[in-house]
Structure formats: structure tokens, C-alpha cells
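A quick aside before the break. I want you to see a complete sequence-to-structure record at least once, exactly as it would be stored in a machine-readable document. Don't worry about memorizing anything.
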Amino acid sequence: MRAKMEYGIRGLSGSRDGTIFYYHPRLKATLMRRQPTMPHQEMNDTYRDVARNLKALQPSAPYKRNFAIYTSKRRDEDENLLIVSWYNLYIKMMWAMQAKYPSTVDLRTITREQITLQNLPCKTVKAAIEDGLLPPVNGYEILIAEL
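That is the input. The structure line, written in C-alpha cells, reads:
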């Protein structure tokens, strides 16, 4: 497949012959990467289950905005930090929480109700920062929207 850009089209997206094309809005560029080919392993199933479960939590819009604000502040404070989106930090925070509280948190089965009942630190960005799951940034005290 030959990729070409037409006038007025923001970006090319799709896949062909083991190559994936996608438009990245923050970089304002079309990126290309190889389609991954991974052998099936049991750990792949675990990561798949965790990813599906974390997506099923469906964070609220204010929580997403707070994470986006936090991500922007992190980028401003450290220019060498390559964070593509707020979702990357969200996932990193959740894995850090499981590592810190292995007897309490299992990301394959965690629910919104469990987060609320056990008052887990992922409930707000501020709580996650104060618990040490995320590095602090200036003005993090206002990031109190709940999951």
C-alpha cells in the first residue's frame, strides 16, 4: 500500500501488510508502526483481562479532565517526559496501586464499588499523589474529581 495525504485530510489511518498508520492529535502528525506479532503466553491473557477491566471502570469526565490537567502539568515541569495521554498515567497509577497493596487490589477484578468502599487512593488524582502513586506537581490540591 502506498500512503499518501490528500489536501484537507488531517491524517491517514488504518493498517495494511503488517503496518499500522494513525494520526496523533497532540503531535499533529501521522505515525506509522509495525503491527505486533506476539506468541501467545499466559501473561498476555492477564494483561488483556486487566486492560478490559480498567476500561470497564469508565472514569468520569471530570476525573479524566483532572488527569489531563495533571498530565499537562507533568509535561510542563519535565520537558524530557514523554507522556502521550492521560490514560498512560492512569494505567501506570493503577499498576503502582496493585504493587503497593497486593493483598487488597487485584486489577483483574477491581470495581468502582470496591474503590469507593475501601477508599482506595485511585479515587482521586489528589489522593493518588498523596499516597505516592504519582509524583506531585504544583497545584495538585485542586484535582479532587472522583473516579
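Two observations worth writing down. The longest helix spans residues 61-77. The chain is about 40% helix and 10% strand. We'll return to this after the break.
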